[in-house]
Amino acid sequence: MTDGKSITRRTLVKTGLGAIAAPAVLGVLPAQAQSGVVKIGLVSPRTGPLAGFGEADGFIVDQVRQIVGKGLSSGGKTFKVEIIAKDSQSTASRASEVAAELILSDKVHLLIGSGTPDTTNPVADQAEVNEVPCITTNCPWQPYFFGRNGDPKKGFTWTYHFFWGLEDVIAAFLALWETVPTNKVIGGLFPNDADGNAWGDAQRGVPPAYTKAGYKLIDPGRYQPMNNDFTSQISAFKAAGAEIVTGVMIPPDFATFWSQAAQQNFKPKIVTIGKALLFPSAVDALGARGNGLSSEIWWSPNHPFKSGLTGQSCKDLADAYTKATNRPWTQPIGFQHALFEVAIDVLKRAKNPTDPKAVLAAIAATDYQSIVGAVKWTGQPVKNVTKTPLVSGQWQRKDGKFELVITQNKTAPAIPVGGKLQPLA
Domain limits of the chain? Predict the structure, then answer.
């Protein structure tokens, strides 16, 4: 059983998903006897401050279970597919613990994980140590790769990742800010965690790129996650006259900062925050002060991709999620779906999906068109990492509801723009 709302067969049919369970989709041979079980282990944050990243997991896992219900054909044999999902509880220690359980107790053949470096890194580390094939996503590649002490000359053996990088979010943010006149003074908010240390790194993070682009970054230093007082940061930003605020924060920390900014009469023109502003629930919780905040956009119903597993467009998948859960679409839906798309594609192509080395070879040979774009590991930007496109946009209130509008596509012209960035009131 999965957490969250389960999807019935009737729900699948109602949302247009009934046809996707056809055996032809997976090359399944229904009349052939099962040759064994292939186990996929998933680790993601379903609870805790990063739960937004796992919000759609119940929907996605149920959908995939319906699709692979009759088995998966690989190497001329048909295998039963078992998906075991575990909650990282938004902590690295728990992610490592449940990843080890999946490997050592559940004996999974492929480990997958998502939802910031707090989950992806310990999951991948466990896979690397235990020589189990692993695919991760939903984490910029630098915190994933360098956060695990990756050597660009060597890379890793068992662990692969797909997502965008800091160079992409920098470009997406700069392209966004160029559309509104400002004094180019930025206040930076970077926590003392894997993401914050990577984003704020003086060499590999955002500071050098912002300086090169003619911006002045005010960085008051790292704060501890779940901070309850941002007075020192706000005072530094006000003293410098910062008209832009950026950084990477968890939703509770941004909510605290933004409330205290109002109390202390700090009114920047643009606030563009990574991670914290990805989710409708987090923005809704801010009330009227959520209007006009901006963020990176990795996936939306308007992205021009479709699932190689189900044939669904991005809009189809988002609509199906909303119909099944009565919740607004959220960015991780696309990447969580893509994670299973790639996983199933890998297992189908493996000469023996229960043999770790065969699965690893299939991962390395991946050349797949997913609902988040192409996934193909070529050694660029580093071994074990391939990138997906990124744009940026703004939460705008329309008809009483917040809508995440793509307001610049300079960084990925194939993804359509839906409006213009409006300065904060």
Answer: 9-164+301-386, 167-296+391-408
353 contacts 79 by C-beta, under 8 angstroms: yes
Token pair listed for 97: 């613990």
CA–CA separation, 204 and 161 (whole Å): 19
In angstroms, the CA 240 to CA 387 distance is 35
CB neighbour class for 30 (10 Å; exposed up to 12, middle 13-18, buried from 19): exposed
Q: Does domain 167-296+391-408 have CATH number 3.40.50.2300?
A: yes
Contacts of 388 (CB under 8 A, 6+ apart): 162, 163, 164, 298, 335, 372, 373, 374, 375
N-terminal to C-terminal alpha carbon distance within the chain: 46
**φ, ψ of residue 418 in degrees (nearest 5):** -115, -5
Q: In this predicted model, what pLDDT tens digit does every residue of 147-190 receive, in sequence order?
A: 999 999 999 999 999 999 999 999 999 999 999 999 999 999 99
Is the preceding omega at residue 381 within 30 degrees of 0, hence cis?
yes
Over residues 34-74, the pLDDT tens digits come to: 579 999 999 999 999 899 899 999 999 999 999 999 899 98
Q: What is the DSSP string of 124-193?
A: HHHHHHHT--EEEESS-HHHHHGGGT--TTT--SSEEEE---HHHHHHHHHHHHTTS----EEEEE-BSS
Q: pLDDT for 295-307, tens place per residue?
A: 999 999 999 999 9
What is the CATH code for 9-164+301-386? 3.40.50.2300
Specify the pLDDT at position 15: 41
- 9-164+301-386 and 167-296+391-408 share one CATH topology? yes
